């Protein structure tokens, strides 16, 4: 039970966005995509979530090709948090979060639904915003609201035999430091419930602190993948990002971080 | 902050209260529409009529007025108003824009083109056909015009199975412009009396329709409104964004097509018989949204009920202002709806 990406290429017109990608996403792992702007991280995430069809190659989720899923089957298997979201009408935070229950709404009672909404909202620390209109929130609060909605989609069933997946495209971009760590710890928690997480993160230290598998993309290709300490080598960082920096892990008591040289 | 929370708690209560309130309004307006008119009928007339199970037991003048004039007209205004209200809400959701209304997908322009063609060219080009279908010619022409133009816009925006809103919007604008110029050409070659008929058609009129015309229109409206009502929940998710709705398990492309087709059917049917009645489809859902919020599970039924009551009341006004003549209803909806809407909008914005 994995997501298997085999020789995946995606091109739009003449531009190749992804070039023969091979990758496995395991349900008990937190995989993090890193790479410079335009490397193809979001494209890869979109391909995995079914938004973009492969030009070549194939993606299979739990041994079933992604193109054979119906929208509802996909919704039962994976949840997606996109980079941007627009909202023209003034739904309240509570209403937005409750939409996450759409795919299993018929199978549960109103009380259960209320409990789930309450749980995910307290998880994302937005209970006090419940009655506020979504469009009046700050960027970070909006992001937490959307995360709560996405979490709600995977909330049931607690024990699922079939592996499920969560795709997060820059989930921490507008969050303060506390919530950045909170969100990634939560993602790590989910991997213990047979949910595989694939996230795009720009902050290398943050990525290094949480990733089970780190995937470094550049120009639509995978440069390297594996444990953070092996991916974040000086040579890779210099070649891909053009920065001189060092992976530094002082001891088990602290998180690792990326330290930049004085002279770039 | 505190006030915000209060406001939304209020919204919840309003959502629950809105349906019974508008239903009450609908019953009152229907009753008024039956009682008020050039021939005065008393409440007891109506009650005996209703208690006799709507049957024409004694064919006095009052029962005939009631059964052959007032009742079809009232039922029609309820149906057309409901269709305009609900379809307006559906269009605003489809375009994710509170300014959208059904004319964007070509129903109004197409209907007008069909009607103009029948009025201007009907008698000279197809005299036999006009004799055979008689009073049905204008509604059939308008309906065909609607369907034709909607079908063209649908085809243009549905490429390789991708039904994109931006193409829909742009092709809608382009096709409406072409249709407008065709209407202009036909207007140019029309005679004075035809021009008059045509102008009145574009201002809308609910009168003079027999049951034979009213019933098929109501059936079409009924089917489409049922269809649209079932899309309320997916449309809520659709407002999060197309990709987001798809992620949550909604088949977005199907949803958009269904909304388009049901709206074209309902508004097409309404326009074909009543002419163009502007403003209802835009103002009613907008007002309702200000009052009870954007949740379609409440917005749809309330817009429908409120649209039906609103159009019925305006029709009563259109009938009695200049007895024995009648005002075109489109004038009344805009004249009443406009200031009322401005008032609500002004109150809304001055609050924050």
From TrEMBL, chain A:
InterPro entries on file: AAA+_ATPase (IPR003593), ABC_transporter-like_ATP-bd (IPR003439), P-loop_NTPase (IPR027417)
Keyword field contains ATP-binding: yes
Domain ABC transporter residues, every copy: 3-244
Alphabetical UniProt keywords: ATP-binding, Nucleotide-binding, Translocase, Transport
Pfam families for this protein: ABC_tran
Domain of life of the organism encoding this protein: Bacteria
One of the record's GO molecular function terms: ATP binding
Gene3D superfamilies: P-loop containing nucleotide triphosphate hydrolases (3.40.50.300)
Function, in words: Part of the ABC transporter complex HmuTUV involved in hemin import. Responsible for energy coupling to the transport system.
Family to which the UniProt record says this protein belongs: Belongs to the ABC transporter superfamily.
The protein's name in its UniProt record: Hemin ABC transporter ATP-binding protein
């Amino acid at each position: 039970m994995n997501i298997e990406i085999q020789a995946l290429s995606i091109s739009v017109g003449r531009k190749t966005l992804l070039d023969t990608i091979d990758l496995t996403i395991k349900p008990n792992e937190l995989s993090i995509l890193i790479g410079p702007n335009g490397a193809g991280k979001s494209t890869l995430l979109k391909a995995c979530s079914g938004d973009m069809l492969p030009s070549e190659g194939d993606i299979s989720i739990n041994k079933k090709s992604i193109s054979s899923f119906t929208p509802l089957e996909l919704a039962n298997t994976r949840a997606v948090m996109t980079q941007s979201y627009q909202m023209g009408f003034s739904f309240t935070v509570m209403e937005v979060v409750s939409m996450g229950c759409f795919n299993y709404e018929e199978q549960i009672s109103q009380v259960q639904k209320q409990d789930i909404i309450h749980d995910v909202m307290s998880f994302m620390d937005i209970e006090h915003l419940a009655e506020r209109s979504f469009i009046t929130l700050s960027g970070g609060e909006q992001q937490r609201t959307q995360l709560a909605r996405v979490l709600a989609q995977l909330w049931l069933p607690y024990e699922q035999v079939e592996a499920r997946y969560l795709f997060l495209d820059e989930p921490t971009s507008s969050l303060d430091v506390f919530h950045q760590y909170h969100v990634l710890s939560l993602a790590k928690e989910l991997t213990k419930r047979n949910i595989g997480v694939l996230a795009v993160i720009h902050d290398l230290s943050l990525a290094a602190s949480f990733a089970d598998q780190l995937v470094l993309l550049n120009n639509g290709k995978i440069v390297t993948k594996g444990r953070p300490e092996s991916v974040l080598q000086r040579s890779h960082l210099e070649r891909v990002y053009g920065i001189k920096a060092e992976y530094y892990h002082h001891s088990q008591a602290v998180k690792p971080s990326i330290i930049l040289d004085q002279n770039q | 902050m505190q006030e915000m929370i209060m406001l939304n708690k209020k919204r919840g209560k309003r959502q629950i209260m809105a349906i019974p309130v508008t239903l009450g309004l609908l019953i009152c307006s229907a009753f008024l529409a039956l009682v008020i008119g050039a021939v005065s009928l008393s409440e007891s007339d109506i009650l005996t009529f209703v208690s006799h199970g709507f049957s024409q037991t004694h064919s006095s003048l009052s029962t005939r007025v009631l059964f052959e004039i007032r009742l079809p007209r009232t039922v029609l205004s309820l149906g057309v108003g409901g269709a305009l209200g609900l379809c307006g809400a559906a269009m605003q959701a489809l375009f994710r824009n509170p300014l959208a209304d059904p004319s964007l997908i070509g129903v109004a322009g197409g209907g007008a083109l069909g009607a103009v063609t029948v009025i201007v060219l009907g008698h000279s080009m197809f005299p036999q056909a006009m004799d055979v279908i008689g009073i049905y010619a204008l509604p059939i022409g308008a309906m065909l015009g609607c369907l034709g133009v909607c079908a063209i816009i649908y085809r243009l925006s549905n490429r390789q199975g991708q039904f994109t809103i931006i193409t829909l919007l742009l092709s809608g604008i382009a096709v409406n412009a072409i249709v407008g110029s065709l209407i202009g050409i036909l207007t140019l070659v029309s005679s004075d009396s035809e021009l008059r008929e045509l102008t009145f058609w574009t201002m809308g009129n609910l009168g003079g329709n027999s049951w034979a015309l009213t019933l098929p229109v109501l059936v079409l409206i009924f089917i489409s409104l049922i269809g649209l009502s079932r899309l309320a929940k997916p449309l809520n998710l659709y407002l999060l964004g197309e990709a987001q709705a798809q992620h949550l398990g909604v088949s977005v492309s199907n949803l958009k097509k269904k909304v388009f087709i049901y709206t074209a059917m309902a508004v097409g049917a309404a326009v074909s018989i009543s002419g163009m009645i502007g403003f209802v489809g835009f103002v009613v859902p907008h007002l309702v949204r200000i009052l009870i919020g954007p949740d379609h599970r409440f917005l749809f039924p309330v817009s429908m009920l409120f649209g039906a009551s609103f159009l019925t009341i305006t029709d009563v006004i259109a009938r009695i202002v200049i007895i024995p003549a009648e005002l075109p209803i489109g004038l009344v909806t805009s004249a009443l709806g406009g200031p009322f809407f401005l008032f609500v909008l002004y109150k809304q914005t001055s609050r924050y």
